[in-house]
Amino acid sequence: MSQPSEARPTRGPDAESRAWLAGLRADGARGEDARHRLHDLLLRAARFEIGRRRGSLPHLRGGDLDDLAHQSADDALLAILAKLDGYRGESRFTTWAYKFALLEAAVKLRRRAWQGREVPLEPEHWAVLAGPEASPAASAESRDLLAAIAAAIETELSAHQREVLVAITLNGVPIDVLAERLNTTRGALYKTVHDARGKLRAHLADAGLRFENETIEAGA
Amino acid sequence: MSERRRPDDVDVLRGLLGPEGPELSCEACFEALDRYVELELSGADADARVPGMRAHLEGCGACDEDRRSLRALIEAGLASAPPAPAD
What we know:
heterodimer, A: mainly alpha, Rna Polymerase Sigma Factor, Chain: A, Arc Repressor Mutant, subunit A, 2 domains, 9 helices, disordered C terminus, B: mainly alpha, about 60% helix, about 0% strand
């Protein structure tokens, strides 16, 4: 995956962020107090995230959800303390810290929502792309593209690329859930998706087909 | 006369083919997420300041959910309430 170049110089942390860093790096009671304060913030962030997403987990009780919030805050605090030297002051410290709590909460919620569910990886889920029953009202252009993609999924992709791409983009499996099942990471799976998409795009280009990434008016 | 792809076809195609052009990895996206969201909320051109972020967010639903969550948290005012530890 290519890495676009960074377009902005680093600025230093503001006074409040420097105070957080100093507190968290301090020994004794001061350091303990800073870590306690940060945990409180992370817990609030995790509860906020869980509150936004609780509709995806209607079977979970309030106590279960609060346990998830505490686990998220605990894990986020550990991650932050381990990565404190990586904070470069490009945002407020609290914004930087919150993202760890939100990530932990979101991943835990997605995994809890799929707990005990089978992750669909079967090839028949993508094969229907090529069939007219899948998209009876589709334009001829869409049908050509979908049929070409269905063929390319079979011929151009490795079995692993096929499974990952289909599970995530067609079957709606959250990438963090699939990462857990396959004992890998979100980043590694997304790289697989990215490479698979590149192969599909190249195949379409060779066939003279192009997807403009938007609805297309023909003859307007 | 016009011929228009149905939205669900577009969604399927967009999901399968992803964004065009260079994009950040999930790890680089997470690294830049806090700065990107603050830039967005300040009205700055976040996409120009963090190249490759927009393409990645279009291609990775999970990272885009993380962005929306962080933005919503800050917009809700929770991020500004607590004071930093005293020196």
